[in-house]
Amino acid sequence: MSKHWERDLDNLQRHLMALAGSVEEAIFKGTRSLQERDPSLAREVVRGDSAIDQEENYIENECLKMLALHQPVAIDLRRIIVALKINTDLERMADLAVNIAERALDLVELPRIAVPDKLQGMTDLTTTMVRQSLDAFVMLNAEQARQIIRLDDEVDRYNREIIEQLIVHMQQLPEQVPAFLAFFSAVRQLERIADHATNIAEDVVYLIEGEIIRHHPILRNEHA
Predict the structure, then answer these.
(1) How many degrees, rounded to 5, is the angle at CA 10 between CA 69 and CA 79?
(2) 28: left (phi over 0), alpha (psi -120 to 50) or beta
(3) Which of the 8 DSSP states describes residue 110?
């Protein structure tokens, strides 16, 4: 490929990583606003979503321009396809972070209840998956991507255990159901963020190895 391709690819990578940084920050602030009942932090997340949407649109347009102008093949083509998919996953993660922040705003108006015991562990693991999936993309590390994919089962376990705990609390304290439901919703959003991190990791394996491993358990774990 020409120097123009390399220039456009570098520009695309910079914007994709800038978007990733904004999304990571939104997830961090959204979950923190939930745990601390911080309405100002929650509103920051909500206000910041439009800038993330604009950056997603820019990246998609750049990818389409590169496909039309350079007509890449093989791994270069896969790189643009994966960039498009990661761009979409990041934007959806940001939407989920907004949903978490909105649940935090709901909680401000409700009687205070304890934060679910395992929420911090689930949050830490999910944010680790997001960060490491993007690191695997930058470093073209398929082994790291597969490790992230395996972590999704642990997030699912956290999700089940927290939901079970919340259901018990709702049965015991029916007057507190709205507050418990706010946490219930936020936990589901967090689990979906982990799913998007898993999508990114699967796309990294596709980029490097040329194999679509989604929905193929053997391919997902063949180097375990």
Answers:
(1) 65
(2) alpha
(3) S
CB-hemisphere CA count at 13 Å for 223? 12
Q: Which domains does the chain have, with CATH numbers?
A: 3-220 (1.20.58.220)
- Assess contact for 170 and 116: CB atoms under 8 A: no
The CA distance from 138 to 132, in Å, is 10
pLDDT tens for each residue of 126-135: 999 999 999 9
Q: What single DSSP character describes residue 176?
A: G
Neighbours of 117 (CB within 10 A): 10
Sign of the alpha-carbon torsion through 49, 54, 55, 60? positive
Token pair listed for 194: 């982990």
Sorted by sequence, the CB contacts under 8 Å of residue 217 that are 6+ apart come out as: none
Q: What pLDDT digit, counting tens, does each position of 68-121 carry?
A: 999 999 999 999 999 999 999 999 999 999 999 999 999 999 999 999 999 999
Q: How far apart are CA 128 and CA 44, in angstroms?
A: 22
Q: Is the pLDDT of residue 218 over 70?
A: no
pLDDT at 223 over 90: no
Checking phi first, is residue 81 left (phi over 0); if not, alpha (psi -120 to 50) or beta? Answer: alpha
Nearest partner of 184 among 88, 135, 116, judged by Cα: 116
Is 55 in contact with 15 (CB distance < 8 Å)?
Answer: yes
